[in-house]
Amino acid sequence: MADTHLGYEQYNLSERRDDFDNAFSEVVEKTLELKPSFMIIAGDLFHHARPSNITLERAIRNFRKLREANIPVLVVDGSHDHAPNIITGTILNPLDSANLIYYLPRHEGARWENDYCYVYGIPNFRTREKFEERISGFYSLRRPAPRKGKFNIFVFHMTLDVPEISSIFPRVAAEASPKLIPEGFNYYAGGHIHAPLHFRLRGSIVAYSGSTENVSYEDASFMKGFYHVEVSRDMEAQMNYIRLERTRKFKVLERDCSGLHPKDIAEAVVKVVREADEVGAVIVPVLRGTLPAGVSKREIDLARIRNAAEKALIVHPVVLLREARFSEEIMRDIFDAEIKDLRTKSYEYFLQFFMQRNYSREEAEKRARTALDLIQHLVKEDEGKVRKILEELFG
User: Fold this and answer.
1) 8-state DSSP, 109
2) Which residues of 67-103 are buried (b: 16+ CB within 10 A; e: fewer)?
3) Quick one: 360 exposed, middle or buried, by C-beta within 10 A (0-12, 13-18, 19+)?
4) If we measure between CA atoms, which residue out of 78, 9, 5, 27 comes closest to residue 246?
5) What is the arithmetic mean of pLDDT over 208-226?
6) d(C-alpha 311, C-alpha 303), whole Å
7) pLDDT average, residue stretch 228-251
8) Are 41 and 5 in contact (CB under 8 A)?
9) How far apart are the C-alpha atoms of 264 and 317, rounded to whole Å?
10) Taking the complete model, does pTM exceed 0.70, yes or no?
């Protein structure tokens, strides 16, 4: 399993935090029924590097149930529960010290094994560049050593650069070349992709179990659950997907609003939201298309859309509408003032650009300054400064 994202208060709702905890509890219940030799969690156990006390306490209760049933829990960190710094370390360390989990990268050889299986896990490096820089050093300190006669499992949390993934998720950035993943393993247990997916690579199985709850509305079409893998004596793996039954219902309402004015958009979306209203559901109207010239997204009555349902947990509109162009009045105000220098004009242009995309004044100002900094360093061909700015923005 992977991507449980415990503690995620999606939409700032404690109910959603509870949903992620409840999904993990259901995984544990089903695991206790299946009685496997061990459990693997391939990263993003927690949504934050420093989870709240209530999230941590609930997780500990579940891990104690697994420990009492003699089911070892083998874990690697993901991009969310990765150590915020070297001194502090990841929250997985104290859970490992309490014998509630076995944090693979921390142990000698980054491995765990029993009479039948050898399991090796690597930490998350967050970006492709850092992975390529540091993975060889990690391998030299904790050398992967698949065992003859055992079923060998490699655990990781990142997107492999392979067509089996890019053809389905073209917008997901690949974080690792398969050339840097060691050979000799029967099974590669991956995290980070939120859809259940498995395929063959170099004659072995690569499996992403997907998330256990909807981390994004884009996850809503994917099944939620985990793989129960049964291995025969001749090392053949049978993949059984165990689906969760108690996850929160998401209703994603795609709507093309091209050419419509804000009032008409609100009317149309309110209607479909009311038709989709259901007790406890998360309703996500996704507004796409291009607005008429001179019309701003800020003119859409989003408050009315959010209040259109009576029974749903929340209505969360996602506005992906494109604005045809800036009005002539705005362009004239920005560029016709002779007393302003180019940098000031550019700043005001970017500020207007971001404010028209529903950012707060403070956030729009921050993004406008960042845009100017990027231009300045690009002109100077200062690649290092550009990379630093982008990493701070996108992690």
Assistant:
1) G
2) eeeebbbbbbbbbbbbbeeeeeebbbeebbeeebbbb
3) exposed
4) 27
5) 96
6) 16
7) 96
8) no
9) 15
10) yes
Give the strand order in the sheet containing 39-42.
39-42, 73-76, 102-103
Please tell me the distance from the alpha carbon of residue 137 to that of residue 38, in angstroms, as a whole number.
28
Cα–Cα nearest to 150, from 229, 231, 34: 231
Phi, psi of 213 (to 5 degrees): -150, 170
Q: Give residue 2's pLDDT.
A: 98
Quick one: tokens of 390? 């982008």
**Domain limits, the chain:** 10-243, 250-319, 328-394
For residues 84 and 49, the answer to whether their CB atoms sit within 8 Å is yes
Residue 187 sits at the vertex; the CA angle it makes with 182 and 192, to the nearest 5 degrees, is 85
| Measured distance CA(97)–CA(326) in Å, rounded | 58
Closest to 158 (Cα-Cα) out of 174, 147, 145: 174
Structure confidence at residue 26 as a pLDDT band (50, 70, 90): very high
- Residue 284 token pair: 């996500």
| 119 touches 38 (CB < 8 A) | yes
**Average pLDDT estimate for 331-342:** 56
Distance between CA atoms of 21 and 222, rounded to whole angstroms? 19
Report which of 49, 52, 51, 106 is spatially closest to residue 74, judged by C-alpha positions: 106
Helix (H) or strand (E) segment spanning residue 51? none
Q: What is the residue whose two structure tokens read 């993943």?
A: 181
Exposed/middle/buried for 19, CB within 10 Å: 0-12, 13-18, 19+?
A: buried
Select from 173, 162, 250, 198 the least CA-distant residue to 42: 198
Partners of residue 190 on adjacent β-strands: 156, 208
Instruction: Give pLDDT tens digits for 279-304.
Output: 999 999 999 999 988 788 999 999 99
Check the CA dihedral 150-152-153-154 and report its sign.
positive
Burial class (CB in 10 A: 0-12, 13-18, 19+), 394: exposed
Query: Do residues 51 and 91 lie in contact, with contact meaning Cβ atoms separated by under 8 Å?
Result: yes
Helix extents (H) in 2-52:
14-34
- pLDDT > 90? residue 350: no
Reference 81, options 141, 4, 173; nearest CA is 4
Q: Which of 250, 246, 206 is nearest to 227 (CA)?
A: 206
CATH 3.40.640.10 at 10-243, yes or no: no
Cα 73 → chain centroid: 22
